[in-house]
Design goal:
alpha+beta, 5-stranded antiparallel sheet
Amino acid sequence: MNPVSHFQSTLRGRFHAYLEDFLARAVQTSKIDRRENARLAKIIRHNEALLRHAERGRGWCVFFIILFIIFAGVGIGFLYRYNFPNVGILFLCAYALMGGGWIFLGLLPKLRHLDAQITHLTEIIQQLIHEAISKLIPFYENFSWNTLTNLIEKTLPEISFDDFLKHERMTELNERYNFNFSDVMQQRSMLYTHSGTFFGYPFIFYNAKRFYWGEETYTGTKYITWTTRERTANGRTRTVFHSQMLVASVTKPCPRFVEEKRFIFAHPATPNLSFSREPSSFAGKSGFFANLRRRLKLRKLKRFEANLTDESNYTMVANEDFEVLFNASNRNHEVEFRMLFTPSAQQQMVALLNDTTVGYGDDFLYVKEKMITLLYSAHLEKLSFSTEPYVLKMYDFNEVLKHFRSRFTDFFRSVYFSFAPLYTIPLYQEPAPKHSEPMIPLISNWEMESIANWQGESRYAHPESSTENLLCVTEMKQVGTHASAKITAIGFRGVPRVDVEYVYGRDGKLHSVSVPWIEYFDVRKESTLNVHLGLGEELSTASCRRTLVIDD
């Protein structure tokens, strides 16, 4: 199956049909009065236009008042320079009389009127928006944390999403497929996760916040002056004043926080094969120079294949386009590599990499370490992993529907093309044997971290922390459907410091320049997060995250 053509011909339309069916049922169930919403939206837009007009008018009034003051100041300065001539004083008095009258009798009353109008319109708009949004709540109640993933499952039955990331899923990856979670968890905190199975084999999407020590450059300045004596053209000497701004800098450690999004997939086939590939500069390119670069790359690969002095057993496949585009020349097992990338898989991978219209083209880094595959996609970095059924601040129901269509469609496309490199491999599409799952699943520590982050790090942060925080699970236990985790918030407090640097000035002397900087010390605070598995009416937008309910 070619993932690009299959998406274009079948899947895109299928997902659109399921989405439109869901939205239609949500509209019907919520019984939204679309005429009333359209009426309110029209009134809101009209008042917003009046508000913009009033704000522009207020801006012009303020502008003319400032302009009058500037011209008056310029006039006073001009008269001062010429010792206040009588004609100038008369002109300035006339200007002040006419301009002051215009301001006090015209602009200031207009300004007060516009201020009152702006306040009134703002209150009306806020009330109307609140009324319009409150009437849309029944529509939002049709959405849950799993609405989007359920639509993907209907479109792609081979993909099954978990309700939440379970401890059993992480244990499966660790014990059955030898995935080392300690490397991923180091100095990271999970923001969002999506887990499940692809043809029965486990996968995890995760969005994590990572901490590392970076560097910050601080600068300090010092203004110096000095004098010199110099002889003029007529033989006399004079004193010359000089000045210079000295600048010094220091570089100090500084905590940095970045987000990263990854896709982990596990499969027992080809358990000895390891390789990596990065996006190439050849995909989707044509023309004389592109073909020349391809031939040079191919010649380089052939020389690498012919080199018998190193330990590599690299042997090119027959499909030269695949070798150039996929460029996995660091593979360690040729037999298993060909088991994975059959001639059909090679053709489909080439089509996937060259496509830049339906999908995202060659934008992914593919790392295989024995039974684990890691995929890093540029398009995945731009995707929000949140499927929260939040209440939008949109008051126009047509805009709300447009938003959901765009958001859901983009999410589906991004997720599908994250799986696309796996879809090119026939071996990965053989169904896995089914395994029984426990009646009461255990909640994973990654899931607990994502719940804590969803609540907001300010809830857990140390009061002295002046930076972002990592919310990490340090202890966890679960009894039945209730789980408890100790959340440790790791942040940093900044302590002002001053370094003295010495800089040579143009006066020939060495000067001390003070450079203020911040030294960071970590601060930690421990809190407890309690959740339980929720059922039915317990799942509300305000209190739940998927099927997990927070115990306050």
